[in-house]
Amino acid sequence: MTFKYYFSALLILVLSCKNDSKTIKAPQNLMEQAKLIHEHVITIDTHCDIEVKNFTDSINYTQNLNSQITLPKMKAGGLDVAWLIVYTGQDSLTENGYQKAYKNAMAKFNAIHKLVEDIAPDQIALATSSEDVKRIAKSGKKVAMIGVENGYPIGNDISNVENFYNLGARYMSLAHNGHSQLSDSNTGEKDGVWLHNGLSDLGKEVIKEMNRLGMMIDVSHPSKEAMRQMIELSKAPIIASHSSARALCDHSRNLDDEQLEWLKKNGGVVQTVAFAAYLNSEKIKARSEIETKIGKQIMDSLGVEWIDLDAIKNLPNTEKEVYYKHYDVMTSIRRKKLNKMDHVPPAVDVTDLVNHIDYLVKKIGIEHVGISSDFDGGGGIEGWQDASETFNVTLELVKRGYSEDEIAMLWGGNLLRVLDAVQAIAKTLN
């Protein structure tokens, strides 16, 4: 069903100042204006993948690792809040598959807690509410929040939803790239094969349980029909944690105009994602030949055989992990090489990201739009390749004429409004 918040949350802006008493002096130029705004608002990125190996005593986020998200990069770019993602890829719908997935999920939960409790409690803290976010940011620390990408690890045990919630998870998607036991995935659009025609019976119960607990429902990966059913069942607003506008880039991971209208009526928010393939397919196509050619050359020099993307998905998880390590090295080398070459078609960049923001704002209203990166999960575009370049997004928003209050809404105010609404509704259900 669709509804309006019973407490007018739809129109309440969660202004996210790092220091409520601070006022901004009149800037001398656009750059100064952007810097002041970027310093003043709380910047929230709702999707950053993690690797457990980067959460040890010897290798961790206090160091300037090659990963796109680290504490030094967050500080350099003025990124205040990173939603660290407990992601599990899709496997067989069997007890053995569920057990492996649960083990993987718990390892990631434990890694995040190790970061905030043992490795760097003086630099970053875990938040589970908007009040936590504002309090921690005001103290000068960075903020970690937790999202679950793919409900597959809960298996057939719905009590695991509450287990994940108690560990700090404040949003969860019910599927990833492949149909889970809970929900169909957007990937079914490619071959027209569906498992549940939306949500399974267990998936419907999980939606109710997430409402009861106060956990946001993420629709970025599930199918369109699954999204429709989620909105019909949910008593609280939803989010798309990392999706863009399908009208500008025709990909099943993006939301079409009908889905955007559903989200608007539901009172939710779509977090526009800096993932090149979801922003500008024309630019991707124009660069694909030269990128593939150079990529193959670099992989060959690394002693690694080039594998097409479709084939990578079919690799065993251990082989896939090894390949992606080499692939990440290759992409870094390739980017530098392409930047030195003449007559190369332009890369997908921050202007493409903000083009999607502009479209979404005009289509469904600024109170329903936010920002995400999908860093360390395939995200990253020219101008926002890692957290250290976060300011460039604010700069482009200022260039487009967005005010400080509007930028505060886009960078996190809207997301926190939805979190507040979800948690308030949960209190009425218990």
Can you offer a commentary on this structure?
The chain is α/β, with parallel strands linked by helices and 430 residues long. The protein has 2 domains: 27-280 and 348-428, Metal-dependent hydrolases (TIM Barrel), CATH 3.20.20.140; 281-343, no CATH class. The protein contains 15 helices and 9 strands. The strands form 2 sheets. Strands 1, 2, 3, 4, 5 and 6 form a 6-stranded parallel β-sheet that branches. It has a 3-stranded parallel β-sheet with strand order 7-8-9. Helix 10 (281-301) packs across helix 12 (317-339) and helix 13 crosses helix 14 (391-399). The longest helix has 25 residues, at 95-119.
Instruction: Give the total of beta strands.
Output: 9
The helix/strand order is HEHEHEHEHEHHEHEHEHHHHEHH
Give the rounded overall mean pLDDT.
Answer: 92
Largest sheet: 6 strands, parallel
Helical percentage: 40-55%
CATH architecture of the largest domain: Alpha-Beta Barrel
Structural class: alpha/beta
Q: How many DSSP H or I helices? A: 15
Radius of gyration: 21 Å
Q: What is the CATH class designation of the largest domain?
A: Alpha Beta
Unreliable stretches (pLDDT < 50, length at least 5) are 1-17, 19-24
CATH evolutionary superfamily of the largest domain: Metal-dependent hydrolases
Number of domains: 2
Distance between the termini: 21 Å
Strand content: 5-15%
Shape: globular
